[in-house]
# Entry
Amino acid sequence: MKNQPHPTHTSFNSFRAALAVAVAGLALGLTGCGQAEPGGEAAAPADTEQVVNLYTQRHYELDQEIYDRFAEETGITVNVVKAGADQLIERLKAEGEDSPADLFLTVDIGRMARAQEAGLLQPSESEVLAAQVPAAHRGDQGDWYGITKRGRVIAYHKDRVSPEELSNYEDLADPKWKGRILVRSSSNLYNQALVASLIAEHGPEKVESWARGFVDNLARSPKGNDRDQMRAVAAGEGDLALVNTYYLGLLANGSPEDQAVAEQIGIFFPNQEDRGTHVNLSAAGITKSAQNKENAIRLLEFLTSEPIQEIYAESNYEYPVNPNVEAAGIVQSWGTFKEDDLGHDVIGQHEEEALKLADRVGWQ
# Structure
């Protein structure tokens, strides 16, 4: 696979530069997007009707640029509070009806289900959102909507592993992979969601047995992020890694060293002969306390619109949820795949159990 940047990646860089100039030029006329860390509060503009307060787990610079563009186009300021999903859920619980949050955004649909079960979200109606987000990727009551998708796949070294040797997640416990698998910590939400999906499919006893075999096959103790796993595969520390798809896109369009890593890595979509590959979502839900609900809906409509979905796809290599938008060229080069259609609420129900199971088997 030749990992050259997709042609529109350059155009997005131009967009970023133009946007920076535009925002700077408007600085005297518009209030900038407020931002606070977990312990702080963003200062709201005097006109509170032109505000949307966002609690988000996402941490990409790209997102702030998109919020700035939303503010420029609508006059609605996005006040951002960043923290981990569990921290934000506990904060919403503690703040109750007095919470300033209008939207809760997480990169793990299981956490969204947890917020839903805790009564922290409220339903909404929007014909625009119904058209832009398929039913499978939004809450039944319109209380949350998917923003982007990412598959949890097997990354393999092209010279040391043949795709014909790979089949499904369950096969990763086979002794033939002993000392050959790399993975990040079980505390990572992506791994918890994957194990939760396996529990939903097979039950906890079978999955615990699988997890013991999987841990026995690890080449080293879990550490680092998904890109670090692929770097370690390229360095010969292992032959396989569990990763989210978009991380390979980021490597392939990163530094020269990371591009060299990406050249050595192939992507395999597990379980194509049965239930399909596990997929997780970035998703946003309207909070029960939302004082700016209409503005929150407008932001959701903006994030799932075709122009913004194209930016997510071309810059962050995530799969768009909007069916009218194609994935980036490099992502398309990996081929199409069947998705596991397991209900997102089911994943949320099993995530806590998945973490405890991983602890029992020594998946650090």
Remarks:
- The chain has 14 helices and ten strands.
- Residues 1-48 have pLDDT under 50 and may be disordered.
